[in-house]
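User: I'm putting together a small comparison set for a docking exercise, and I want a reference complex before I start. The sequence is below, and the ligand is beta-D-glucopyranose. Could you produce the 3D structure with the ligand included, as structure tokens?
Assistant: Of course. I'll restate your input first, then give the structure tokens for the complex.
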Amino acid sequence: MTVQDAVSVQALAARLGPHFTLGVASAAFQIEGSLAAGGRGPSGWDAFAEKPGSIMHGHSPAIACDHYNRTPEDVELMRALGIDSYRFSLSWPRIQPDGTGAFNGEGLDFYDRLIDQLLAAGISPMATLYHWDTPLPLERRGGWMNRTTAERFAEYCAAAGRRFGDRVAQWVTLNEPVSVTLNGYALGVHAPGRTLLFDALPSVHHQLLGHGLAVQALRAAGVKGAVGVANLHSPVRPATRKFTDRLLARVFDLMMNRIYADPILLGHYPKPPLVARPWFRSLGKIADADLRNIHQPLDFYGLNYYCPVKVATGPGTDHSPVGTTDAMSRLHFHTAAFPEYGTTGFGWPVAPEHLGILLRELKDRYGEALPPLYITESGASFPEPDHVSGPIADAERISYLAAHLGHALAATAPGGIAADVELLGYYVWTLMDNFEWAAGYSQRFGLVHVDFKTLERTPKDSYYWYQALSRARRRGQATEPR
Ligand code: BGC
């Protein structure tokens, strides 16, 4: 770590309020492995990953980080990191293999142990109930295209609430329903690999209904913790000032951001611009009762932010954050690059100032309806070797994280552009390199390097940087990171 980093640690730490949460986030399917162990059932992602060509280099999620068998080691890494909170996800098919009916004692016990180990390490558990691993039997019946999945989801959430509700500090119902609909049902680059384009919209409504029913189920189960949701938000910009680019950017903003946040926070769907209405037909007529179910009071709002999106007229694939598919060529618009920004290993623009702008936009849009907010994911992949010996100098990740946290703090500080947003905490995506969905193990987002041959964990410089930040804040001064 350079002197400059140490200075920025000091400066950042000084701006963190005494109750600000520093955390890291992960997801079950990306780290656990042991897909057939301990009574777990298969998920839609298990099946998708087996299809040739679906995962880069044919990588398999079967072992991932082997976190299922190495939980104590990983909790120890987090304890030494000095974080306040760990956001992890409960695997629905590990807890309820068929997605309905019987619960799996071994699966419940696994998360019981994880939660107890976290608490013993002084780390507060934030549990996500759904991070994309739909039980396969439900996926086979249409997954989120089928309304009954919402009801099944709420039943599983009630059981999780009853079992863990005395110890989990925050509950996140869904992680990024937009990614599930867009990548999974509309474009086919994620599980379940369907290419329904705009006909995928029922999966939006059913996920949102699942969210609303889950909030009610958790509260009925008497959970002690706070309840919220984690939505991905990407500020959308038109490629040019041309009318069609601006119009399509509005439509994209609606599909990417507002169609999820508006019903949850405001209790209604956004109105598409007149010319785009036919595209939204498959959403159908929404019952008021559904909107009331979706529009539940939340204790916090989870914001996942990675980058802004630029939208241009016409089909094309010159820049896509998730890879390209044939389905994209049937659309009237495409996402374009931001030549003015540097990029991450995934090719995503590094645009930290947009996080502050986004916080402002959210407050403008939702006003009093916006609950206190956690940044539930923020992070980046950069090219790193598969095997390492000695220190891992990931200065790009350190500056990415410092800039994003810095912009969020500046925006929400008195006098900042989003001073009226209550920012409760920041979770780095992610603790350790893991199975990055369709990109397999090719994108490393972790503070900790994982050698996927030996499964050895090696903290990167960014780990020591985050550790120094946490220590500096607690003790009021930066300490020697290693
Ligand atoms: C997801 C994570 C994913 C990360 C990086 C987020 O959208 O919640 O599961 O690994 O982005 O792609």
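The mean pLDDT is 95. The radius of gyration is 21 Å.
User: Thanks, that's exactly what I needed.
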